[in-house]
Amino acid sequence: MHKYIILIVSFLAVTACNKNYLEKYPLDGPSSSSFITNEQELMLAINGCYASLPFHPSAHNCPLPIILDQVTDLGFDRNNGTLQEVSKGSHDSNNGFFLNVWSSSYSGIARCNFLLDNIDKVKDVVSQQLYNRVKAEARFLRAYNYHYLVEMFGGVPLVTTSLKLDESQIPRNTKEETVNFILTELEEASADLPPSYAANEMGRATKGAALAIKARIALYNEKWDVAADAAKRVMGLNVYQLHPDFGELFTYKGQTSKEIIFALQYLKGIKTHNTPSQFFSRMASGFSGLVPGQSLIDSYECTDGQSIDKSTRFNPAKPFENRDPRLGYTVALPGSIFINFLFETHKDSVQTWDYNTTPARRVANTDATNAFATFTGYCWRKYTDLTDKVERTTSELNIISVRYAEILLIYAEAKIKANQIDNTVYDAINAVRQRPSVNMPAITTGKTQEELRSIIRKERKYELAGEGFRVFDIRRWKLAEQLMNGIFYGRIPRGLLAAAPKIDANGTPDYSTVPNRSDMRVVETRIFKANRDYLWPIPNIETLTNPSLVQNPNY
Q1: For residue 21, what pLDDT is reported?
Q2: pLDDT < 70: residue spans in the chain
Q3: Each residue of 404-462: pLDDT tens digit?
Q4: Torsion on CA atoms 398, 404, 409, 415, rounded to nearest 10
Q5: How would you write 364-383 as a 3-class SS string?
Q6: What would the DSSP string read from start to end of 380-437?
Q7: Burial class (CB in 10 A: 0-12, 13-18, 19+), 237
């Protein structure tokens, strides 16, 4: 294989944080004059494009989908100051999290551009089918990177070829232009991508993956007909189906599920992540660093389909009983078994049960006594597997990027927003609610558009919590200024809420009428500026090295 080289630019001698990510080839990219001359090199090049995907934009070494919900009303990051700046509204354009997302995305885009610039060199030495497929894979991966950038930063520079130094001063395209580019790329790529692969090539982009991301980005940008059509085409492939066991889906046993449309791939010795270390409880030798909040727990319905402030099945003394099963599959709740320990965060529970031995034994409970145990009283359960108990920092558990349940919810929401409500809308929502391991009551027909809008917003929250979608949802629904202003609560350290909070139409709890609300743990006070924070700032170093980049307002 040819030796990798770096394109040298005039300011490369300065520190890494001062590099403009739009004006160089990928740092590990090969020479354009001597690479991609045969099938082996073609596959090395496209595999390099995939390798850039599971980027980890924080010190935790956790994938982006794992990180994102911690800067929303659902979660909290105890360890990372740059993420706390985002949730507290104290961030600016020098925030390292934004720079990492920007640079990682453009590094991935650069790899794809390099391949696309050089793929014609092998057009006559590989099969037409492989040539078309790999080209489509690269276009998909480039669009995938752009779909994150456009939703976080708005319109961004559309770089579709490897740049020379004198071409590097590129202005931003508009958001509409960027979105339309993504949609076109994904549609055209889908034509040459197969519906599935052999087992030894699992993880590559498929026709369904391209259409799924197209449906997602169309939904986010109010292109209802496009979103519904793309989602329907995914459904019509008859490749995907809901996994019957919701909890298993996010474990090693679920990695080959037919619900998974596209996932970020990991393998020991190649690329791993640190999610278990951040998610596991103190008893399981984790940090409990990334955790869900009280408002998420209280938003889940009871098993009769009613919110906890309306259901006769809700008992404040036993708040986790008779609840939507997805709550317990998503969150490690006090009183449940979590990584072979009885998980209990009541501060007086100084001992707990260790089920790693036979028989089980009573041991000191660091989830109650350790100063750095979960600040909220809860842990994330999604993406935790007992297999990772020993090697917590090198997990190879794949992280799902898009799955069939999301497609059903995209289809339903797009049809609702377009006011094209029919039985297929109810069928899609109810399929998600009634998978065997969940089995929540069906949504009955005859609902108004407003009622269904409320239902779909809550359903996305219950189904997708912890998977990185919430930041985009609360922005496009214009709820962020409501949900990200005020106190982020944890559980009462030595007790329970005396009564259910009021739950609004979006599934958001209001604790103002709860008698003992003052006993709740104040984890963080948050600020969201509506005239600024619906977009994140372009990293400052990028605007300094490329004056053509116009900063987002009020940064």
Answers
A1: 42
A2: 1-34, 166
A3: 999 999 999 999 999 999 999 999 999 999 999 999 999 999 999 999 999 999 999 99
A4: 140
A5: ECHHHHCCCCCCCCCEECCC
A6: E-TT--GGGSSSTTSB---EEEEEHHHHHHHHHHHHHHTT---HHHHHHHHHHHTSTT
A7: middle
What is the structure's pLDDT at 210?
Answer: 98
- Spell out the residues 6+ positions from residue 30 whose beta carbon is closer than 8 angstroms to its own: 2, 3, 4, 5, 36, 45, 114
CA angle 35, 37, 39 (to 5 degrees): 115
One-character DSSP codes across 245-303:
-TTGGGSGGGTT-TTEEEEE--BTTTB-B-HHHHHS-TTTT----EEE-HHHHHHSPBT
CA distance 18 to 548: 16
Rounded CA separation 425/428 (Å):
5
Q: Quick one: tokens of 234?
A: 């995914």
Q: What is the pLDDT of residues 194-251, one digit of tens each?
A: 999 999 999 999 999 999 999 999 999 999 999 999 999 999 999 999 999 999 999 9
Residues whose CB falls within 8 Å of the CB of residue 278, separated by 6 or more in sequence, listed in order = 60, 62, 66, 79, 286, 287, 288, 289, 290
- Token look-up 């986010």 returns 220
User: Which two tokens mark 4?
Assistant: 């990798």
Cβ 230 vs Cβ 406: under 8 Å: no
Burial class (CB in 10 A: 0-12, 13-18, 19+), 424: middle
Are 555 and 537 in contact by the 8 Å Cβ rule? The answer is yes
Global pTM value? 0.94
- SS3 label, residue 349: coil
Looking at this protein, which amino acid is placed at residue 445? T
Cis ω on the peptide bond leading into residue 553 (within 30° of 0)? no
Q: What is the CA radius of gyration of the chain?
A: 24
Site of tokens 């911690």: 70
What pLDDT was estimated at residue 380?
A: 98
Structure tokens at 3: 């030796």
Residue 164: predicted pLDDT = 79
| Token pair in block for residue 57 | 């934009």
